[in-house]
Amino acid sequence: MDMAADQAQIDELRRQLSGTLLVSGQAGFQQALKIDNGRVQLQPSLVVQANSTRDIVLTLQFAQRHGLRLTVKGGGHSATGYCLNDDGLVLDMSLMRAISLDRDTRRVFVQMGARWHDVYVYLINSGTGLIPIGGGCPTVGIAGFMQGGGYSFVSRSYGMSIDNLVSLTLVTVDGQVRKLDADCQDPTDRDLFWACRGGGGGNWGVVVDMTLQVHAPATDTMLTGQIRFLPDRAQDVLGFYNQWVETLPDEMAVYGIWGMSPSPSDPTVKIQTFGFTVIYNGNATTGASLLAPLLEKGPLTVSLNAITLPDFELLNGASTLVDNRSAYICSGMMMPGAFTPDAIAVFERYMASVPSTDSFIVWTHAGGKVSQVADDATAFAHRGARFVPEVKSIWTNASDARANVEWAHAFFTDLQPHFVGAYVNYIDPLLADWANRYYLGNYPRLLDVKRACDPDGFMDFQQGVGSAFEPDQSQPLDLAPLNRSFVD
Ligand SMILES: Cc1cc2nc3c(=O)[nH]c(=O)nc-3n(C[C@H](O)[C@H](O)[C@H](O)COP(=O)(O)OP(=O)(O)OC[C@H]3O[C@@H](n4cnc5c(N)ncnc54)[C@H](O)[C@@H]3O)c2cc1C
Known about the structure:
The chain is an alpha+beta fold. It contains 14 helices and 16 strands. It comes from Montanilutibacter psychrotolerans.
């Protein structure tokens, strides 16, 4: 974009906005581009910090009129930084964070600049004890999280986050402001509501706000816990876990983790362990008795607490942040029983050769209410998955990038026989056959919705719905897709 030639139009847009327009070099510009993954350093020409639906419409029209690429930034936690772009315009939603609660219907209205932290704090301060079906990490944005599906620690009790999405407001690329819910009369709107629930952020237009169903948990506090074992116990303990989780009620979620943790004999020293993050949506006594068979396996460390879910998220949620270091992230979807000896052996082999002590694997324990919804009822197609592992390969020196990316990529490539797909919220530009793996049988309908709502591909991006991009899997791996937001 020729900034000098367009200065008058930029000034005109700035005058029309109730929010802020920042140009490269201006105070606040770089701050507005901060995202979780420090590896992504894209530089747009303009940032618009919208403060109203009208600002969003004006910005969409401006970008189209001037041939500018536009991406939308919510919480900035996209693993690949798809909320940013080079040379174009970033629509930053961070000024729009209004939240309100209807106590009668137990519904929360929230604007899309908000992060889960804002909702947790709002609900804590409401004194109602109500909980959202929200993210484990408080700084994750609601906008991106929800559009990809959204696993919460209590999803086994209440469904995916999108199963608790009542309605949303979407500005489509034609500038129309659409109120979407499951009862829309207009078939286009119905399709869009379907697509926004699992089809992935950045594809359908700009989401302005959402209304979420929130819940009273089974008890005021939940039993939460951390249980760790030494890696040489993996075959025995994970083999047991694979079967044992099938006996648990929906109220119990037992997530997995494998990485470094403080040694019990000297907490200043970190050692590699694997284990579990436990959340029981019920009283501590029942929760502890459900855990007894796992504890009989002789863990290295155990800590159990009875606290509210929002307090747990606020205390523990930051532990999986990349936090401005560099990261590459891959994911997979595993069906019930998929932690076979062969699969566990792959985990053991790669974790024994992890190139960075900052890297780790975590996995979601899914199922329960998540699986009671049909695969095609929303765009989120992985209802049957039981475990959703992601590897976070994290490093600090730029020269270490190739070793760390190749390690994680080879790790999750070797796990492919144990996977049935991958999770679009951990979007990975090096994943082969990505569209099929993220969307399975829902992809043809998503393509139809995309063609109808964005016929000229204004919001296209490298792994947007409809993109023909396919990463080259030959060796040495081409790392270029990690740094591009658009198909050239
Ligand atoms: C530390 C950490 C913890 C996580 N924990 C969980 C978890 O517990 N469960 C889970 O399911 N996922 C989890 N995730 C994944 C997370 O859901 C995704 O990374 C999600 O895309 C982040 O949304 P965001 O708004 O923060 O990111 P962004 O990078 O801002 O946005 C992600 C995508 O959505 C688009 N987008 C953003 N805002 C809008 C909007 N208003 N309208 C239209 N498109 C928009 C962006 O352009 C981008 O393509 C976690 C990620 C991290 C980094």
